[in-house]
Amino acid sequence: MLFTRKVLILTLLVSALWATPMHGQSTNAVVQEESNTVDITNETAFSFAKHRAVLIKNANGAHHANFSIYMSNDMSLEKFQLTLSDASGQLLRTFKQKDLTRTEFSEGLAADGYMLYLDVTPPSYPIVAVCDLKVNFKRNNVSFPIFAPLDNYNTEVEKATYDITYPSDYPLRYKVVHSSVAPSKTSRDGKTSLHFQLDSIKAVWNSKYGLPLSEIAPKVYFAPTQFTYFNTTGSLLSWKDLGTWEQSLFSDRGVLPEEAKAKVRQLTAGCATDKEKVATLYKFLEESTRYVSIQLGIGGYQPMTASEVWRQGFGDCKALSNYMMALLAEAGIPSHCVAISTREEKLLPDFPNFQQMNHMILEVPLSADTLWLECTNPHLPLGYVHDDISGHEALEISAQGGKLVTLPEYPDSFNVNTTEARVALSADGSADITIDEDFRYHRYVGMKSIATLDDNDLRKVMFSIYHLPQAEIQSVAVDDASQPYGTPSLKYHLTAHSLKYASVTGSRIFVPTNLLHKNFTPASDSHLASELYVAHGSRNTETIVFTIPKGYTVESVPESTSTSLPFVDFSSSVSVDKSTITITNDYFIRRGIYPDTAEKYYQFEKKMGEIFARKLVLKKTQ
């Protein structure tokens, strides 16, 4: 789904461990020293050198000893060395450029690039990994490596520097984010240098409800004001200017062959509205194309032509979006390609850049509504704005240039999981069980993948979710019930027979109430940040009806209860009639950022766990 390739994918995964534990966690890595050096030769060439030394303390930090880098035809790796030393400083192993593995992209991917990587398994801990590299670039001065030394959770940084040197008349600019660091500046012999230094950066803990690292870690972006790229010129003075350059790359790329035009006319002939035309053509896109990563053409920014996609039946996000735009244009419906990030919710309003966007979708402004089409995955319901882009800022690209827009975010109350279950108990503790689930909007996309599982894997998933002791799952039927413009909804119906759902002791049956939350444990304080972040609010409503076996009566049931915090509510109610006991649970959490709530939320979930652990007691009648 990548939109950009040339955003300097310099993934140097070398980090380490050391620190004072917080909330029960210890750090996985400490970067002892990192230096970055960028030397801009002219408007189309520069070099980048990096030195990074990391102490790795245990296996949790082992991946920080690995290295990988994306290479392309306008890049050359001049130098590479990775060394491993023990805690006393004794050299254990040295890796050179010849030790790197080169891999082309998988079959079906068209690209002029390849990966160089090195997978290292540390022989012991603690261990120090030191990496040095230098890369030369040509035709790629639209952006420069970001200064972001804190690139992993549970990692500390002792010292990191970044030096960038450029011709004094070169239009370089920078933007500092999540930090107050300011550079020192020197000029000599027609060159200007900026020096940035970050010291003693504390670890960001990988927490269940913590803010994403991208929203916390200090970083500095670098980019030119004007640029020359693959014989094109552009401006980054404004987002409008960036959109103008992007639009120029799409010029004349949307021409369809005559047979494609005829197909559009045939498909839409019976459509009464523009919305019906969009739905029809989106369905055609799903049936006739597939996504592959295409990183060819002006460094990966320019899409394949619409005629190429028509002929070959594949494309990447920008190619498929451009193709869908061409189909809609033939049907008389205007639309706009939109560059967006699947990682970052906000774009820097005063610093137009390439680094923040990695994907492309299509915007279709209709008279009564605006549709956002995910052309790389048309299996999603038409009109559904999925988790990775909902609420995100994006760059609309049109003949008028670029414009920042914000995609819609669904209200918390839309993201619902509704469960209806029945447990028909027998006197020997066995039970016949039925479960009906319905997942909607953001809850839908998290479960959508089960619709593609085979029967065996699907049953494994069900056993992992539900309390089904000594059980046989008799059937599972999944229904992806979503329709264009309708509510995104995935449903399934499960039937099972458990030989030992309840425990029989003498004249009593002890019945677990926690059918729906197998092995539930509260989020411990080691998995919570002090500032909780809820990306998408949601509601779970559960109804479980237990049928009392003949010859038994209710001796005791749990009391109805509730607990709440300002951003989350949970209630559990219990009702009894002659032959059934009904338990209804309702959980509602709201989207947002909530400071200083980790301990309170831990206690909240702990109480939920206690409620789920309760039992019903049935007694045999005399």
Biggest pleated sheet: 8 strands, mixed
Average pLDDT over all residues? 90
The SS-based structural class is: mainly beta
How far from one another are the termini? 67 Å
Shape, principal axes of CA atoms:
globular
- Distinct helical segment count: 8
Number of strands: 38
How are the strands of the biggest sheet laid out side by side?
Answer: 5-4-9-2-1-10-13-12
Q: Approximately how much beta-strand content do the residues carry?
A: 35-45%
| Portion of residues within helices | 10-25%
Report the oligomer. Answer: single chain
Regions with little confidence, pLDDT below 50 for 5+ residues? 1-24, 106-110
State Rg: 29 Å
Descriptive account of the structure:
By secondary structure, the protein is mostly beta strands. Helices cover 15% and strands 41% of the residues. It is built from eight helices and 38 strands. The strands form ten sheets. The protein has an eight-stranded mixed β-sheet, with no helix packed on it. It is globular.
